[in-house]
Structures are given as C-alpha cells and as structure tokens.
Amino acid sequence: MLEINQENFAEEVLNSDKLALIDFWASWCMPCKIIAPLVEELAEDLKGEVKIGKVNVDDNPELSTELSIMNIPTLVIFKEGKEVSRIMGVNSKEAIRAKLKSFMD
Q: Hey, which CATH number is domain 2-101, 2.60.40.1880, 3.40.30.10, 3.30.450.20, 2.60.120.280?
C-alpha cells in the first residue's frame, strides 16, 4: 500500500490514469484502526486495477485541509485525477469494493 503525502500526492493521485482510493487516517483514531485491515485487503485484492494509498492527517495537515477532510477515517476516490466520491466512517469491505467498482470502466 502506498504512503501518500504532500510531496507525492500530485504524482501518485492527481496525475495517475488509475482509479485511486486514498484512506485519510490517524494513529490515535479507533475507527481508522478498524477500517485499516479492510483497506489493506482491498489493496491486495485490487492490485493492478486500483491504486490504494494512505494519508496520515497528522503528518500531512496541508493536504487534509486542501481536500477539506473534516472527519476520519475518510476514503476518497479519485478518477483521472478528480475526486468522484467519499466514504466516511467505518464501512464494510464489500461496500467499499462496490463503490470502487461503480467507477471502474
């Protein structure tokens, strides 16, 4: 899974031709810890199809502010460099996968 930060966000997400799912999280956030294994499983399941990464909001406050991340965990889906959807809070792996599939060509 990719570690996304202020420095590599444009290259890895905005300039990517792949669908991307970015998990905005923090180490102190209990719901983030619940959803983390699901996101990691999806990264493995969808390897090559979807770019999946994580942004630690404490380490990247500018990026979090830029994208108006108000709550965590927040999963943001990008297609062709544009935000197309957000999933906030804890969701099932199946619900996250279904949302991703809705944006796959």
A: 3.40.30.10
Q: Is 32 a catalytic residue?
A: yes
What pTM was estimated for this model as a whole? 0.95
Contact between 55 and 63 under an 8 Å Cβ cutoff? The reply is: yes
Point out the catalytic residue in the list 4, 19, 21, 32.
Answer: 32
pLDDT band at 105 (very low <50, low <70, confident <90, very high): confident
Query: What residue spans define the domains of the chain?
Result: 2-101
Catalytic residue flag (residue 92): no
Predicted local confidence at residue 51, as pLDDT:
96
Is there a contact between 23 and 86 (Cβ–Cβ < 8 Å)? Answer: no
Active-site residue (options: 29, 46, 84, 90): 29
pLDDT at 16: 92
